[in-house]
Specification:
Length: about 120
């Protein structure tokens, strides 16, 4: 068995696609009307479809999982994030853990938790 994709729920699929392209360079591979597959295995699904499938509400900022990215130029990434999305909500600004890894955590436009860190 192989993990194929991971899916996050978004309110506006086009805004979410643009966000993940702007910050992480992800490109759209497939657009299935409310279910969009991006490079690196990220799937965006519009909230209305997800709610219909599950018959449950989406819980914003549930903090039960995160998308993790590694970036060598973390300071450059932070500058790009602040320039392109100045109103982004941070969990923690740039910090360095005791083990030496520098990270930043924030929510995407739909309150999905993202961590960007330097390689370990």
């Amino acid at each position: 068995m192989k993990l194929k994709n991971f899916l996050i729920v978004v309110k506006d699929i086009e805004k979410a696609r643009q966000f993940y392209h702007d910050l992480f360079g992800l490109e759209m591979l497939t657009d299935n009307d409310g279910n969009m597959i991006l490079t690196d295995g990220l799937v965006l699904q519009e909230e209305k479809y997800w709610k219909d499938f599950l018959k449950r509400d989406v819980i914003p900022q549930s903090n039960s999982c995160e998308l993790y990215f590694e970036e060598a130029d973390i300071e450059g990434f932070v500058q790009k994030l602040e320039r392109l999305y100045p109103d982004i909500q941070y969990v923690n600004r740039l910090m360095t853990h005791s083990w030496g890894q520098t990270v930043i955590r924030f929510y995407d436009l739909d309150s999905n938790l993202i961590e960007v860190g330097t390689a370990m």
